[in-house]
Structures are given as structure tokens and as C-alpha cells.
């Protein structure tokens, strides 16, 4: 069977650090995505102003409009993020806020969504991922059940650990498979 449509996954990065482990994970997923899947890392989340209804609407900042366009064009959304102080980093939370508006019609509404990532703690950022899933649900995304990958980097780089790499790629696969279920 041949498929003529690429499935596009928009990745929202919770870290804007140049040397970010989570960016490297996102880039690994992009480079090793299965055939038929395009992974686009949405750049510039740190240039999007904090959400404020007074700057939204027809004159929304270009950075926010670009974020919305990237997600609107995607078939699915994957947050790849560390944890800051027991929750998701503000830059990711802010992106979800912009993607949730206009209420009920935001770019994230109806998009299959998952949140994964790694931190150098034993818990691998599990609260961040849980909170991102909760926030995305409230924002109107379709959070795919069962995609839970909170990689601990305590023992070293998860990308140097084949089992961890397979868990991360498996999360991408599960997100892709969800669309097949929806489309069936
Ligand atoms: C952290 N870090 C962290 N890690 C964690 O697992 N739970 C946490 O609550 C926090 N809190 C926290 C707050 C702040 C302000 C910073 C800067 C960091 C550590 C964090 O997970 C670690 O620096 C990661 O490597 C950051 O991810 P990137 O940038 O490597 O992708």
C-alpha cells in the first residue's frame, strides 16, 4: 500500500537552551521518524509574548501567528520538554495559551497531543508532562492515552541508551498510530 500524504507532527519544545537535551531528543525524532511522518520543530517559542487578550486578535504578534499557523498545519502535536520547578516551563505553557484561543477554535483544538521528555532527575520530568497533558486537554487537544515517556538522564544521555531511544521513538509511533485509529 502506498500513502501519498505525509503525517506532520509539530513539536513544541519546552527548552530554548542551545544545548538542550530535549531539543536533541526532538531532533533525533525528526531524523529517525518513520516513512510518511514529518517532524517539524516549531522554532521561536521564546519570541512569543506572554499571552494577553489585549494583544490578541487581528493584530496578534507575528510570532504568535506563526506558532498558530505551524500547529494548524500539523496533524498532531508533540511537546518535548524538561520540567521546571515541578511543572512545565513557562515558554511551553505560554505556547499552549496562544494555541487555545480563540476559545474553542484555537489551533490546538482537536489535535492529537502527547507530552514527553527528559530531565536529569529520577522522575524524568513526569509532572511537567502530566501538567502539559492536562493543560492541552483543557485547551481542546485530544491527548492520546498511554503515551508516557519521562526519561531520566541521571545515568547519562538517554540518546546513548537504546532502550530509552526506543521508548522515545515509540511515543512518536503511538501518536502517529492514533491518527490511523481516528481516520479508520
Ligand atoms: C530545572 N530542572 C528541573 N528538573 C526536574 O526534573 N524537575 C524540576 O522541577 C526542575 N526544575 C528546574 C527549574 C529550573 C528553573 C531549571 C533551569 C531547571 C532541571 C532541568 O530538568 C534540566 O536543567 C534539564 O536539562 C533542562 O532541559 P534541557 O534544557 O536540557 O532540555
Task: Annotate the secondary structure layout.
Blueprint: E1 7-13, H1 21-31, E2 37-41, H2 62-72, E3 76-80, H3 90-99, E4 112-119, H4 126-139, E5 142-143, E6 150-152, H5 162-183
Parallel strand pairs: 1-2, 1-3, 3-4, 4-5, 4-6
Helix pairs in contact: 3-4
GO molecular function: FMN binding; oxidoreductase activity
Pfam family, one: FMN_red
Protein name: NAD(P)H-dependent oxidoreductase
What is the count of distinct domains?
1
Amount of helix: 25-40%
Instruction: Supply Rg.
Output: 16 Å
**CATH topology name:** Rossmann fold
Average pLDDT, rounded to a whole number, is 95
User: Alpha-carbon distance between the termini?
Assistant: 15 Å
Name the structural class. alpha/beta
Specify the CATH class: Alpha Beta
Please report which band the strand proportion falls in: under 5%, 5-15%, 15-25%, 25-35%, 35-45% or over 45%.
Answer: 15-25%
* DSSP E strands, number: 6
Number of helices: 5
CATH superfamily: Flavodoxin domain
Ions, cofactors and other bound molecules = ligand FNR
CATH structural architecture: 3-Layer(aba) Sandwich
Poorly predicted tracts of residues: none
Note the run of SSEs as H and E: EHEHEHEHEEH
Largest sheet geometry: 6 strands, parallel
**How would you sum up the global shape?**
globular
Amino acid at each position: 500500500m502506498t500513502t501519498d500524504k505525509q503525517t506532520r507532527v509539530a513539536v513544541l519544545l519546552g527548552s530554548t537552551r542551545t544545548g538542550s537535551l530535549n531539543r536533541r531528543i526532538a531532533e533525533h525524532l525528526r531524523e529517525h521518524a518513520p516513512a510518511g511522518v514529518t517532524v517539524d520543530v516549531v522554532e521561536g517559542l521564546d519570541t512569543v509574548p506572554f499571552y494577553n487578550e489585549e494583544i490578541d486578535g487581528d493584530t496578534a504578534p507575528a510570532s504568535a501567528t506563526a506558532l498558530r499557523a505551524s500547529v494548524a498545519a500539523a496533524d498532531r502535536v508533540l511537546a518535548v520538554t524538561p520540567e521546571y520547578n515541578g511543572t512545565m516551563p513557562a515558554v511551553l505553557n505560554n505556547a499552549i495559551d496562544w494555541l487555545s484561543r480563540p476559545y474553542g477554535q484555537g489551533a490546538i483544538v482537536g489535535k492529537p497531543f502527547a507530552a514527553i521528555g527528559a530531565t536529569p532527575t529520577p522522575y524524568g520530568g513526569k509532572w511537567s508532562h502530566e501538567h502539559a497533558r492536562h493543560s492541552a486537554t483543557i485547551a481542546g487537544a485530544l491527548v492520546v492515552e498511554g503515551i508516557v515517556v519521562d526519561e531520566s538522564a541521571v545515568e547519562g544521555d538517554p540518546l546513548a541508551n537504546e532502550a530509552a531511544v526506543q521508548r522515545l521513538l515509540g511515543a512518536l509511533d503511538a501518536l502517529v498510530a492514533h491518527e490511523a485509529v481516528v481516520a479508520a
